[in-house]
Amino acid sequence: MRNLTAGEITSAVERLQEGVRSQQGPLVWVDFAGVGEASANWAHVTTAARTIVGRELAQQVKVTSIAPQAWVKSLMKPNSWLPDHLMFSLHGANLAQRRAVIPRADDPSTVLPLWAALADMRPVVLNYVLCEHNTRPEDEAALTGLLAPYAGRFLILRLSSFNPVPDSPLRPSTREEEFIAALTRDLDGWTVSHHLSHGRETAAACGQLRAHILDLPTLTKRPGL
């Protein structure tokens, strides 16, 4: 509904870690992810992250983002604060595919060189959600060709099963196994993993959770499609 302030973020982590600490010790890391975009609220995210680590509420901070090129460039400036780990949402081998999931996303061929440069500074995972529109046989070759020059630069390529959300134009892939096998076989120098979200069984995926909690209008067309 709106961006959280640094104080609200820190307070939420503080309340959570109190329960976790009593059961299993301090939080290992906090991941800025889910509904919303960390780079769009970066001043509050960085303030909260510094406080969380400084007060030892968690040992490390991870940020998940669509990683727009202007934001990535700002991270590479001298003295810029960087999280311990990053995960960037790819979701397509070309601009049309990527914008089907992220309507205002940059062209993959434009941002990948910047992402790789940042990956030399911090570990970066590439996340690719598996949908009907981006797991066809021709997409296997396109994604392999796009990523082949970056072998060894990123931590892993994480292929994530899509959780169906009511009224979404996106559909889960019927070719998950074939697509995963092809990328694992053909991407030399890459570690490829498959993330099957528990959201399918528990209705706890970000989009599902948001739809159940908030009274959202039915979507007839996604912006940018």
Structure description:
By secondary structure, the protein is an alpha/beta fold. 41% of the residues lie in helices and 16% in strands. The chain has helices spanning 6-24, 42-54, 69-75, 95-101, 108-119, 137-147, 176-186, 199-202, 206-213, and strands spanning 27-32, 58-65, 85-89, 124-130, 156-161, 192-195. Strands 1-2-3-4-5-6 form a 6-stranded parallel beta sheet. Helix 2 (42-54) links the parallel strand 1 and strand 2 (58-65). Helix 3 (69-75) runs parallel beside helix 5 (108-119) and helix 6 packs parallel to helix 7. It is globular, with a radius of gyration of 18 Å.
Structural class: alpha/beta
- Gap between N and C termini, in Å? 22 Å
Give me the count of strands. 6
- H/I helix tally: 9
- Average pLDDT across residues? 87
How does the major sheet shape up?
6 strands, parallel
